[in-house]
Amino acid sequence: MNTADQYLKTIYVVQDSEDGPASTGSIADALGVSPASANEMIGKLEDRGLAEHEKYKGVTLTDDGIVRARDALQTYCIIERFLANVLAVEDFQAEARELEAVIDDTVAERLDTIIDRQPECPDCFDPESDACACLEIAATPVEPEQQ
Amino acid sequence: MVAVSVSQRVTSDDQLARLLQIGIVLEEVVEARAHRHYRQLDAELDEAVETLLADAAEESADHRERLEAIIDGLGVDSVPFDEIESLVDARYGRTRPEDFDDVLYDQLCNEETAYKFYDDLIEAVEGSDAAFSVDREELIATLTTIRDEEAEGVREVTEVMERR
């Protein structure tokens, strides 16, 4: 997932939790970057027609931005589910955050073929736990289904 | 919400090992899929496709072993392979290719995905100044060889597709 997609995903989640435009400060905090870096990327997203920034109000994703943000959130869910249910990683949220920048969407799509993602994804994403609310955390890899 | 990373770099042995484990699973997907298709082709033989899939399965097994050797060098436990194998096999057992073109297209996606994965991984390793427990030059050389073989795999599938 590239940096722009990480921003879009974050703005989408912040907008949802703030129930309105996402403030630059919240976006920067969520991404662990400086407000200046966040502003720079937000400007690029505006140029690409993916977000709109209104002074003193915050950032709102455009329809195109929302589509890409939801795709990015799905990719993140795939990585989390893969780590939790296939590789039995306990702290899958922390590892997913580390890995999301290195895992391309096409790779995530392949991983998606061996996990059971729910049809409501990514609406099931819970920002508080930073995880899919439907994710059943397994201590060991899931048993393959009988054919 | 928790802060996320926006850097496209590999920064630790553990992170590298995890990415290599993902590589192993991707190889396993290619291997399981190619093997399954190979067996299904018994009734209607097409020598070119059969050879392609047999070679793909063999190459994936070789890649998997090389990745496992690096993970061993990092001192991190590898993927429980037999469990992953049965999981991948069970998931793919639900689908059946319609015809040769289906088989080839799927194989093309597998090879392209693996290529993209290794290409990104090499970039992420090169972009990092972390000191890994394995020799960096050897690591990059191994990943580059595997990536180039995936690129060759893409070329081979494309050629067979074009000939049909």
From TrEMBL, chain A:
One Pfam family of this chain: Fe_dep_repress
A GO molecular-function annotation: DNA-binding transcription factor activity
Transmembrane feature ranges: none
Residues in the signal sequence: none
Recorded superkingdom: Archaea
PROSITE patterns: HTH_DTXR
Keyword S-adenosyl-L-methionine listed: no
Keyword line: DNA-binding, Transcription, Transcription regulation
InterPro entries: DtxR_MntR_Metal-Reg (IPR050536), Fe_dep_repressor (IPR001367), HTH_DTXR (IPR022687), Iron_dep_repressor (IPR022689), WH-like_DNA-bd_sf (IPR036388), WH_DNA-bd_sf (IPR036390)
HTH dtxR-type domain segment(s): 1-62
Keyword Hydrolase attached: no
Similarity comment text for this entry: Belongs to the DtxR/MntR family.
Cross-referenced PANTHER family: IRON (METAL) DEPENDENT REPRESSOR, DTXR FAMILY (PTHR33238), IRON-DEPENDENT TRANSCRIPTIONAL REGULATOR (PTHR33238:SF7)
Protein name: Iron (Metal) dependent repressor, DtxR family protein
Organism: Halorubrum coriense DSM 10284
